[in-house]
Amino acid sequence: MKSALKITSWLSIILALLLVYYLIEELSGGMSVLEVDFIPALIILVVISNAVLGFYLLIGKLKPVKPLLVLQILIIIPTCLLIYEFFLKPPMGCS
Predict the structure, then answer these.
(1) Where are the beta strands (DSSP E) in the chain?
(2) Looking at per-residue confidence, does 21 or 36 come out higher?
C-alpha cells in the first residue's frame, strides 16, 4: 500500500501541475481571472489540495492510510479525463 500511495501522490502532483499550466496558459491568452466560473475554480482547488496532500504524504508529514489512497484515486480519475479533454482531444470542427 505504501508504494501505491507514492505512485498516486506523484501522479496527483504531476496532474495538478499540468492543470495549473493549462490555467496559466488560458489566462495569458487574454482571459481574466474574474471570468473563471465557480465550478472550474472549485475543481482547481480540489486538484491542488490533492497535490498538497500527496506532497505531505511523500515527505512523511502524514501517515499512509487506506482512505487517503481511495480519496486520491477518486480525484485522479476525473482529473485525468479533464487533462485528456484539454490536451489530447482534437478540437471539433464545424461541418
Answers:
(1) none
(2) 21
